[in-house]
Design brief:
- The protein is built from 16 helices and no strands.
- By secondary structure, the protein is an all-alpha fold.
- The chain has one domain (2-177, 188-373): Growth Hormone, Chain: A, CATH 1.20.1250.
- Helix 12 (255-262) crosses helix 14 and helix 13 (264-284) runs antiparallel to helix 14 (288-315).
- 56% of the residues are buried.
């Protein structure tokens, strides 16, 4: 299974290479979108993911993880071609529809392949390395953007599509880790969904994680560039700030070390608090230095939280139909994301500071929920490697 890990690491690196990442919002605005339309498209995308989550989870369990991964990687490539050619709301809407199918399909699929391909007890380290390689790809792409691409947005879109095309080719070399299951027991979906929806501790974790994850997505991908501009930063300075933020995303590889030192609960609470503080700083300042510092702090907090979230979520699921159960969990996070995006969109066009304050409030709410959930009983959680080792979470939308 070492080959699987090597291929998945390479795919993560290539799919991290989003060359238009430093100007994701400016790119869309240059092609006719407003901040409200950008966040509206995010909400539409998440709503479609909600509808597709469970069917995709059941399909992955039935056809096998390799076939599902190959299909999703190829469709991911197509979505980047659509983004490259998009102009106006309709073009970007088509891209988001295709991307929604991909995100719903990949939701936990890549982590499942990683978990089933790694030695027992190594999952959090592997997750951290995997996310760090995605970040390394972002870093490389941001460096190329800053030093060569600049204002040639179309070239950035084309290079991104080519990188995703190579990743799609590599996915054909993966080995199957879960055989297909043509026959399913009646009531399997109800049993899998019930294990998620009736587990109070897991539900609280999903909602809290959804608030933090979506706030990080909106603030660090869409609101950061308008914030930098109102502080007087130019495109080159924005690109350098993006490079620094991307570099700090590599801290996810050290998540397991932090949790060993502080413990899981203290680590999670600290990261929620740091994220809320970063949003508050951004909302109250017009200083370029403080704005960059606030975004970097948010980036570190989210990067360290994601591997821990995967570990905590994975422990709460023990059904044989894990992809289905974990799709239900991802669907819960999507519902939270839709609400958060609509709220950000309604506020951002009126006041950037108010939108950043909203992000801080959502992270603070996530902290309170996590504190309450850590004291709440739920379904039985198994420690260590579970029955089939698969995990499931919403894949990070690296480019928004």
């Amino acid at each position: 299974m070492k080959r699987n890990l090597s291929l998945m690491y390479a795919i993560a690196l290539l799919q991290g290479m989003v060359f238009y990442g430093p100007v994701a919002t400016l790119y869309r605005q240059a092609h006719g979108l407003s901040l409200f339309q950008i966040t509206l498209l995010e909400s539409v995308s998440l709503a479609l993911c909600i509808l597709l989550e469970v069917p995709w989870g059941a399909a992955a369990d039935r056809i096998g993880y390799k076939k599902a991964m190959v299909f999703c990687c190829c469709l991911y490539f197509i979505s980047k071609l659509l983004f490259w050619q998009a102009d106006g709301f309709g073009g970007f809407l088509a891209e988001r529809v295709v991307l929604s199918v991909v995100l719903a399909g990949l939701s936990g699929l890549d982590e499942s392949i990683l978990f089933l391909s790694c030695p027992p007890g190594e999952s959090q380290r592997v997750f951290g390395l995997y996310t760090s390689l995605q970040t390394l790809g972002l870093l490389a792409a941001a460096l190329v953007f800053s030093l060569w691409i600049g204002e040639r947005y179309a070239l950035a879109g084309l290079l991104t599509a080519l990188s995703y095309g190579v990743a799609a080719l590599l996915s054909f070399g993966l080995a199957e880790v879960k055989p297909s299951e043509p026959y399913r027991q009646p009531g399997a979906f109800r049993q899998a969904a019930g294990q998620v929806l009736k587990n109070r501790r897991l539900m609280v974790l999903l909602v809290a994680a959804g608030l933090l994850t979506e706030s990080h997505q909106v603030v660090t991908v869409f609101l950061n560039q308008p914030q930098y501009q109102r502080c007087g930063m130019g495109d080159r300075a924005i690109g350098l700030a993006y490079l620094a933020a991307t570099l700090l995303g590599l801290t996810g590889a050290y998540s397991f070390r932090l949790t060993r030192t502080l413990g899981e609960r203290r680590t999670a609470r600290l990261l929620f608090a740091l994220s809320a503080l970063s949003c508050l700083t951004l909302a109250l300042t017009r200083s370029a230095a403080l704005s960059v510092a606030g975004l970097l702090l948010f980036r570190v907090g989210n990067s360290l939280f994601q591997p821990l979230q995967l570990e905590l979520q994975n422990r709460e699921i023990s059904t044989a139909d894990r992809a289905t159960a974990l799709s239900v969990g991802a669907m819960v996070m999507d519902v939270v994301g839709v609400g958060a995006n609509l709220a950000f969109g309604a506020v951002a066009d009126r006041s950037l500071s108010a939108a950043l304050l909203l992000g801080g409030g959502l992270c603070a709410a996530g902290l309170l929920l996590f504190r309450a959930g850590s004291r709440t009983g739920g379904g039985r959680a198994k420690r260590g490697r579970l029955c089939d080792g698969s995990t499931h979470s919403r894949p990070e939308r690296k480019d928004g």
